[in-house]
Amino acid sequence: KVLVIGANGQLGSELTDALREKWGRENVLATDIRQPRQLAGGDRFELLDALDKEGLYRLIKQEGTTQIYHLAAVLSATGEKNPHFAWKLNMESLFNVLEAARELKVGKTYWPSSIAVFGPDTPKKDVPQYTVCNPTTIYGISKLAGEQWCEYYWKKWGVDVRSLRYPGLIGYKALPGGGTTDYAVDIYHKALEGEDYTCFLAKGTYLPMMYMPDAIQATLQLMDAPADSLRIRSSYNLGALSFDPEEIAASIRRHLPQFQIRYQPDFRQQIADSWPDSINDSYARQDWNWQPAYNLDRMTQDMLENLRVLKEEGHFA
Ligand code: VAH
């Protein structure tokens, strides 16, 4: 029995579908703070505020939950506009989940971290699993603190909580919500509308990125791995792609030759500049056979194909 918290988000909307596929619709309970726009027949959903500890315990007891995926968070850019709330939501919801896993003996727990745990003095290229982490966003600070709490619950109480430091995730099922890397999602929507794209990051801003199908695959592989095969209980580095706005624009132009990009960096440039360009994920490759499947051009082809269909169906209207 799987419980997903934050199931309507950019990651949640895709991971929940994959979990229904893997475990059966009837065994996955999706929750979020508001009703989803669409719910396919047989999909189960309940309202749950990630800060509502009593509600969480009630659902776990009534469901007999054996796995929790806690995906609710305030991301980097939004977090900088409201840092105290971002800390409260990101940390208190994690404490609720870790305590529930400990007290109600939930088998496995998943909680995403991010390359946002790295800071300006982290090496920029091929960032190792163990390195300097001085994040400059509240989002990054909360993810770094959360990683340490996950490791603590594992070491002190044997709570089997697992985590991945996702790069910027790019997917087509949900509109992005307040991330610094989300220019790489917006750009595809604008290109398909035949519009030029005004990018809020400057040319030459390289960031670690990953296509959503790769992120989903990595998550399922990590959660299926034997507990004693995992050397990392804070959060695994995870890498796939690294590109700047100019390179993704060129990749799009191979399909839509008229597409143009212009640059108008805003406050998110400072956040992006504090993050590295590329990640070393050798621990993930060795411990649970991680291997990304998408390069930039394959991602662009797949994104444009799927977005075209969804737009025709009025998915984002
Ligand atoms: C953000 N998409 O931009 C998220 C992610 C690596 C970045 O954590 O905040």
Automatic annotation (TrEMBL):
Gene3D superfamilies: NAD(P)-binding Rossmann-like Domain (3.40.50.720)
Domain NAD-dependent epimerase/dehydratase intervals: 2-239
InterPro entries tied to this protein: Epimerase_deHydtase, NAD(P)-bd_dom_sf, NAD(P)_epim/dehydratase
Pfam families, per the entry: Epimerase
Membrane-spanning segments: none
Gene Ontology molecular function terms on file: L-threonine 3-dehydrogenase activity
Swiss-Prot/TrEMBL GO biological process terms: L-threonine catabolic process
Family: Belongs to the NAD(P)-dependent epimerase/dehydratase family.
The name this protein goes by in its record: Putative epimerase/dehydratase
Organism: Cesiribacter andamanensis AMV16
Lineage per the UniProt record: Bacteria, Pseudomonadati, Bacteroidota, Cytophagia, Cytophagales
